[in-house]
Amino acid sequence: MAAAPMQAEQPAVSDVRTGEVLSYAAFARRVTRAASGLRAQGLRYGDHVLVNVPLGANLPVAVHAVAWAGGVAVLGAHGVARMMITQDPFDPAAAKVDQVFSFRPVPGARPFADLLGVGSLEFGPLAGPALTVDGRRLFDNTELATDLRRLATRLVVGKDDIVISAVSEPFRGLRVIDLAMTAGAHVVVAHEPSVVGCRVLAQERRATVVVAPYDLARRLLGDPILRVVDERAVVSSLVL
Q: N or C: which terminus of the chain has fewer CB atoms within 10 Å of its end residue's CB?
């Protein structure tokens, strides 16, 4: 969010699967408007919201909208929560929620777009719980932001970088997206690419960094231009 005013219409997230490209300005607009919509629908500080959205441009929008509204994003499709944001059909017996919003038409859910029409929430919380993976350990806004800034410095990620995310696990993938956007970079979300696929994508997008699982990262080493990062590096500081 801090990078949005400076990066403006520069691309923030590209989704290889869907072809969607989300600029920093568009990201900020969607987050602040969805956060306002969540508040209007009754979300209160500390309320849990299930987020069952695959890696891509929509995942950071959903997670940050919840956090910007003061809620806690719970990555997954099961549990008890005030609301749920999804993209696929859900099991009402597994997701005990009052309201469901979906990026795609889903039985029993309202369109996510319904959250975007009630103005913007310009100032979100800078502290307090923001995210949980298992419903027990809560990650704080301050903790996550501070750690991402440290990672950007340690991994030397800057605003001129184009980062390919070859990560498939949702939390790690979200961390890669957040890391790139914290630095003002452009992150390209690939979906389980092969070594050849990664190299072709890197050449097409003029990528400078790739974050990948260990086996894939090891096989990509040696490129004189592409910096290769093991995906474990983006969560190691969180003891995960």
A: C
